[in-house]
């Protein structure tokens, strides 16, 4: 009589693979829905947390099944491999987010003027329940930004305010930002130009305002970027303000014969 020995299968291997695939699907669907404005940002955050939990559970189940497959020859090696690879891919961005949280300041609002930050008009009308309140200047915020982002500063251009306004609008168009305004503040010597900017990949919204103030023969420019959600921006807003002002320097130089300070 011929005896056929049946190899046992690891119970955790197929479940690990299924959970890893489900986590990846949740990330893709939630991100696409958020980009298409079908999913609000708070719900998007919770979807990502759910995906991270599923991926972590998948990796843990794969870890439970690995010794049985490796040492005792249980079936399920392919499922374990897929669970480790897919679950790891899902968890990598979350690990990067943890790294950013540990290496960037707890700021969700960045301004070149810490004493009298530029004010929002369009953003106030659009922000609703669940969004961050737009705060005024306070000592903790000023001290933290000054220490973490000392390079974030306003610009003075020795050119008329209309030239600078044209340069700001041209730079925003190059960035693909929809221009809201400009809004005249008081007299024609002060302007606010607002826009709503979405971060790459996750499309996290930040309100941005550029303030122009005419001071004699020169124009002073301040800029502010504030996240709509969360108590930290992982460096996103400083990454909006700094490069924009550098490109604005170049834009002003091309539109006028005078170079910015």
UniProtKB/TrEMBL annotation:
Per UniProt, the keywords (alphabetical) are: Membrane, Transmembrane, Transmembrane helix
Q: Where are the transmembrane segments?
A: 20-38, 44-71, 83-102
Name the InterPro entries on file. DUF1499
* Name this protein carries in UniProt: DUF1499 domain-containing protein
Organism the protein comes from = Mesorhizobium denitrificans
Known Pfam families for this protein? Answer: DUF1499
